[in-house]
Amino acid sequence: MSLVKSLRNAILYKGSNEFNKQELIGILVFTLKLMDVKSAKELIEKGIESGVIEERDGVLVINEELLESEEKKECLRDEMASYIARLLGWTEQDVLEEARKLKQRYGELDEKILVYLFGMDKGVDMSRFKDRLEV
């Protein structure tokens, strides 16, 4: 499950955007049953690295404005992955995994750009998404 969806579910469950680390892990793993402990810890680290989660005096604070911004990016990424998967007869997850492998060729690009490039690389007409990409 994605960073955005997981954090959004945790906020909805608790009714707050502030957690201690163990509490957030407990909600993600045991209450919502979204992932295992290792994945939850990795998700929190990824959130801190991306700035979606801030650590203040031992409290994890989820920046809801950044979360919303990331949500919009994921929405387009998922829409493109679904479109590509349907045309190629693949699963969305396979498309996303293959798109992530393009980091070796293109470097650290946003995932929606990687999915767009993957579609183009596979000969899929991606023109319907071109205007919606923010580069």
A few lines on this structure:
The chain is mostly helical. It has helices at residues 3-14, 21-31, 37-50, 64-88, 92-100, 103-106, 111-121, 127-130; strands at residues 18-20, 53-56, 59-62.
Question: What does the model show?
Answer:
It is a single chain. With 135 residues, the chain is mostly helical. 67% of the residues lie in helices and 8% in strands. It has 8 helices and 3 strands, in the order H-E-H-H-E-E-H-H-H-H-H. It has helices at 3-14, 21-31, 37-50, 64-88, 92-100, 103-106, 111-121, 127-130; strands at 18-20, 53-56, 59-62. A 3-stranded antiparallel sheet has the order 1-3-2. A hairpin with a 2-residue loop joins strand 2 (53-56) and strand 3 (59-62). Helix 4 packs across helix 5. The longest helix has 25 residues, at 64-88. The chain is elongated. The protein starts with a helix and ends in a 5-residue tail after the last helix. The mean pLDDT is 93.
In percent, how much strand structure appears in the residues? Answer: 5-15%
Overall radius of gyration: 16 Å
Based on Cα principal axes, name the global outline.
elongated
The average pLDDT is: 93
Helix content: 55-70%
Q: For the largest beta sheet, what order do the strands appear in spatially? A: 1-3-2
Structural class: mainly alpha
Terminal CA distance? 25 Å
Largest sheet: number of strands, sense, barrel closure: 3 strands, antiparallel
- Helices, by number, come to 8
Overall number of strands = 3
Topology as H/E string? Answer: HEHHEEHHHHH
Low-confidence stretches: none
